[in-house]
Write a structure and sequence with these properties.
This protein has 74 residues and is mainly alpha-helical. It has a domain at 35-74. Helix content is 86%, strand content 0%. It has three helices and no strands. It has helices spanning 5-17, 19-46, 51-73. It is elongated, with a radius of gyration of 18 Å.
């Protein structure tokens, strides 16, 4: 099934307008997952659960919200 050209153009314009917000939201989620995963791996390697995981999640939240705030200030 094919989409109508106007619908495709409307969707593309909508994505172009909100591109920075989309990138910021994925950056927030990515930072939390990446740094949390790094903390989890460090906990398994060092045998110190849950401290590295908590530090990783905290750093991920701080990094993600910093990136989000930077985008919102523009």
């Amino acid at each position: 099934m094919r989409m109508k050209p106007d619908a495709v153009e409307f969707m593309q314009n909508n994505l172009n307008r909100n591109e920075s917000m989309i990138v910021a939201s994925y950056g927030l989620i990515g930072a939390i997952l990446m740094l949390g995963g790094t903390g989890l791996a460090a906990d398994r390697y060092l045998g110190t659960p849950p401290w590295c995981l908590l530090a990783g999640l905290t750093a991920g939240l701080a990094t993600g919200f910093y990136q989000l705030a930077r985008v919102l200030r523009r």
